[in-house]
Amino acid sequence: MGVKPWERLASAAESGARPLSLWRRGADVLLKAGDAVLMSSRENASERLLGEAAAGVADGGHVVLGGLGFGFTLRAALDAVAPQVRVTVVELSAAVIAWNRELVGDLAGHPLGDPRVTVVPMDLVRWLRGAGGVDVLLLDVDNGPAGFSAGANKELYTDAGVALCAAALVAGGRFVLWSEGDDPAYLARLRRAGLDATVRRVPARATGHARRVLFEARKP
């Protein structure tokens, strides 16, 4: 018996970004940007750990997620915070939002249905320019600190972009960025912005040896 082929569920071409396509084979789902795999539902352990970084935010606090993905980070953040915490998801792709609501919401238990969640369909850099009062900012919009899925994201990882992230945080606020691998230059930018920044290596999935990186920073 041959290997079951991947089935294309949907595709979308959006201005300023690589064309996106959604694929399923059995219980596994892939999101591709062009021909490159942007994310896999099988490798969600690191995304969940990113969401768990929101733990400790008390009622009345504000958690912001840059990037929705398959909702694993959002689900973990909702499970980690108090019942009256506001959670804002800033996601540029209308297709990714629609696919979470209509096609793949079951992967993470339909987190967009939680009443604490507000989805903002906007470029993250643009949103950050008017932002403030954020207790925890979690970013997973590319495969690391480089503009992979959308060219406009490049600004997010410059000194100016890091400064925007830092400015959005309350004193003592936390900032965590997911990455496929190390980037010493980006770590240096976080520290130049006055953030107490470290790198944590985490598993890509519950079993296996693949690792991912979380850049973790705190505003003094």
> Globular, elongated, flat, extended or rod-shaped: what is the shape?
globular
Q: What composes the largest sheet?
A: 7 strands, mixed
- Please write the string of helix (H) and strand (E) elements: EEEEHEHEHEHEHEHEE
Tally of separate helices: 6
Low-confidence stretches: none
- Cα radius of gyration in angstroms: 17 Å
What percent of residues are in strands? 25-35%
Please, what is the average pLDDT?
Answer: 92
Identify the strand order in the major beta sheet: 7-6-5-8-9-11-10
Head-to-tail CA distance between termini: 59 Å
Subunit organisation of the chains: single chain
Structural class: alpha/beta
Percent in helix: 10-25%
Q: What's the count of strands? A: 11
Which descriptors apply to this entry?
220 residues, alpha/beta, 11 strands, 4-stranded antiparallel sheet, 7-stranded mixed sheet
Please provide a written account of the structure.
There is one protein chain. This protein is an alpha/beta fold and 220 residues long. The chain has helices at residues 45-52, 72-80, 94-102, 124-128, 159-168, 184-192; strands spanning 7-12, 20-25, 28-33, 36-40, 62-66, 86-90, 117-120, 134-139, 169-179, 196-203, 211-218. The strands form two sheets. It has a seven-stranded mixed sheet with strand order 7-6-5-8-9-11-10. The protein has a four-stranded antiparallel sheet with strand order 1-2-3-4, with no helix packed on it. A hairpin with a 7-residue loop joins strand 1 (7-12) and strand 2. Helix 1 (45-52) runs parallel beside helix 2 (72-80).
